[in-house]
Write a structure and sequence with these properties.
This protein has one domain: Rossmann fold (3-Layer(aba) Sandwich), CATH 3.40.50. About 35% of the residues lie in helices and about 15% in strands. The chain is α/β, with parallel strands linked by helices and about 160 residues long. Helix 5 links the parallel strand 1 and strand 2.
Length: about 160
């Protein structure tokens, strides 16, 4: 049903003269050329029957599992870019464990309310670039991050990359 809906929306957009493309393909190509992809085979202990965690409906990776896939000593004090922090669970872990020199976020403006709940708890310097990551040109004004973290439920779930 989902693919049928997607095809219908795609077809309607084309008929309306809108430009249509698959952002997953574009994002993957950009990441492949601009970063180092590391597939970490570390087993992640997680016995949950689903991705729910407490009152959070869709937490893909538990915060305590991050220490298994992030080289904490290597990236302590580094500049970190986190894509899609949503509930802030991973952001707070990054703040405490990595003590970054700066923590930058790229997130959709619709999630601003979620971020306002947890961002005041951050100790490190931080800033947010609101909008679609593909169009977030303000990120180009910042120093390049040392590490990119994305814990979204997409294909980048365990993509922890060093950009240096």
């Amino acid at each position: 049903m989902r693919s049928l809906t997607r095809r219908a929306a795609w077809s309607a957009a084309v008929r309306l003269g809108l430009e249509v493309y698959d952002p997953e393909v574009e994002a993957s190509l950009w990441l492949d050329t601009e970063s180092e992809y590391t597939l970490d085979q570390t087993p992640i202990p997680d016995n949950r029957p689903s991705t729910t965690w407490g009152d959070l409906p869709d937490l893909t990776l538990l915060p305590e599992a991050l220490q298994l896939v992030v080289e904490v000593a290597r990236f302590r004090g580094a500049r970190v870019l986190e894509v899609g922090p949503r509930y802030g669970v991973h952001s707070l872990w990054i703040d405490q464990a990595l003590e970054p020199s700066e923590l930058a976020f790229s997130d959709f403006a619709i999630d601003r309310g979620l971020q306002e709940r947890w961002a005041p708890g951050l100790r490190c310097p931080h800033r947010v670039v609101w909008g679609d990551l593909r169009l977030a040109t303000k990120l180009l004004e910042l120093e390049p991050p040392s590490i990119l973290c994305s814990s979204s439920a997409s294909s980048t779930t365990r993509r922890i990359t060093s950009t240096s």
